[in-house]
Amino acid sequence: MRLAETVTFAGACLDRAAWARSEPEKIAKLMAEGTTRVLPVWRGKPLFAGDEAGWLQPGHAVLSEAAEAPVFLGIDEGSARFAVDISGWTPTEGEAAQPGVFFDPTVQRHPALPDDHRFAELRGVMANLTRVDAEMVAAARSILSWHRSHRFCSACGAPSEVANGGWQRDCPVCATKHFPRTDPVVIMLVTHGNSVLLGRSPGWPDGMFSLLAGFVEPGETIEAAVRREVAEEAGVRIGAVSYLASQPWPFPSSLMIGCLGVAESVDITLDPVELEDALWLSREEIARIFMGDHPTILPPRRGAIASFLLSNWLADTLD
Ligand SMILES: [Zn+2]
């Protein structure tokens, strides 16, 4: 797909400067430079300043809340970029966060920051970020989430330590090295003639529908995962499968693999655990949804690959 790398979180080609990761003195030198900027993330919420990423200068009071070494993200136009997890900080004012909900609309403010700075859900801001900030914020959210959930060695249970500029954890007891995970997820634009298959999971906000999606299982190809997921969730048989585009999806560590799946059957049999509803929608109905003119279905979230694939299907730009 020619437009593949125009999806949100893609196409920036950030210089990740991996050469610096293995040398702590180089990381320390980069951290001390005046042009360096650091992004704090609080319990999965990056800092934003207005509609931009909330980069801070090294030494800023907020960054002292970090419990572990910063992650070196890379170099953007000569400026080294880092991310730190300040999840240990407890906000003393403002709204209480709503962990575990589909989309936490609350924001948290730190007293050492200006009023337009807040920790917020990335889903609500992602489509407004510059391309390179989107990549860096996504990487920061994903890798810091991994550090938070992998603090102990999975081989022996001992506390592990941040290594390699934040892209690894080492066990000081059994010497096992642990690397960050990326979980492949297939997301399918399932078509049958002039129609496309949408579904909604239990618990989603009213009116929200999307393309079917699911994790690739161990020992499975992308094509097999597409066919299995659609058969399991909706009972629809898929023939030809082709790759369209991918999107890093840092909630917390997925890689969405967008595929086109051509349906060979149309009858829908729901798996009620996975899907609350599924339906075939014509090109005209999808156009109405995007215009916000559909009586029951909301437009897909801007920035998500489902919206990207559907809009390109409408525009006939999947090639
Ligand atoms: Zn160990």
Q: In total, how many beta strands?
A: 15
| Number of domain modules | 3
Unreliable spans are none
Distance between the termini: 5 Å
Helix content: 10-25%
Beta fraction of the residues?
A: 25-35%
- Mind summarizing the main beta sheet? 6 strands, mixed
What is the count of helical runs?
5
Q: What ligands can be seen in this structure?
A: zinc ion
Structure commentary:
The protein folds into three domains: 4-149, no CATH class; 150-180, no CATH class; 183-314, Nucleoside Triphosphate Pyrophosphohydrolase (Alpha-Beta Complex). Helices cover 18% and strands 27% of the residues. The protein has helices at 24-31, 131-149, 222-234, 283-290, 305-314; strands spanning 37-42, 45-49, 52-53, 71-76, 79-85, 117-119, 161-163, 168-170, 177-178, 183-192, 195-200, 212-215, 238-249, 254-263, 277-282. With 319 residues, the protein is of the alpha+beta class. The strands form three sheets. Strands 1, 2, 3, 4, 5 and 6 form a six-stranded mixed beta sheet that branches. Strands 10, 11, 12, 13, 14 and 15 form a six-stranded mixed beta sheet that branches. The protein has five helices and 15 strands. The chain starts with 23 loop residues before the first helix and ends in a 5-residue tail after the last helix. Strand 10 (183-192) and strand 11 form a beta hairpin. The structure holds zinc ion. Zinc ion (ZN) is lined by residues 153, 155-156, 158, 171, 173-174, 176.
